[in-house]
Amino acid sequence: VARALRDHESFLQVVIRGFLPGSLICHGDVVFQHPAPTSLEVLEALALSVGPNKTLAGSDFQVDPYSLAVGEATLEPPPAEPGFPEYGVAIVVVCGLCIITAPIALLVGLTSKRLSWWDMAVLWERRDPEAGTQSLEMDNPGFW
């Protein structure tokens, strides 16, 4: 903390009063000369000292800049951008696959002999070839 605030002309020292049990939250006091910066200015200096790898002022302590609080001043995280929900992506993918596979399955089914339209038409129009003809049974096999 002292490294992060050393650029302020009025900064004197940091006094850590204690750590909360089971966590890495500390309470302390930052001492400045007159004119002291506001809580928001101190908070901004601390937040700006957090590097891209989330370490505080080049130390080994990783800090979430939105967890810093100086007095009553805290930083608000940026609002989350509205995005497309994950279940929406899954629905789009499944519908896309159905749209692609349905015509392929239909074409494969129609080109096979079992599901051909011509075979179905023949099955539907099948008539008895002997319907309407008279059949005579003859007992004389030589007459055949």
UniProtKB/TrEMBL annotation:
Question: Superkingdom of this entry's organism?
Answer: Eukaryota
Residue ranges spanning the membrane: these are: 87-110
Which keywords, in A-to-Z order, does the entry hold? Membrane, Transmembrane, Transmembrane helix
Name of the protein? SEA domain-containing protein
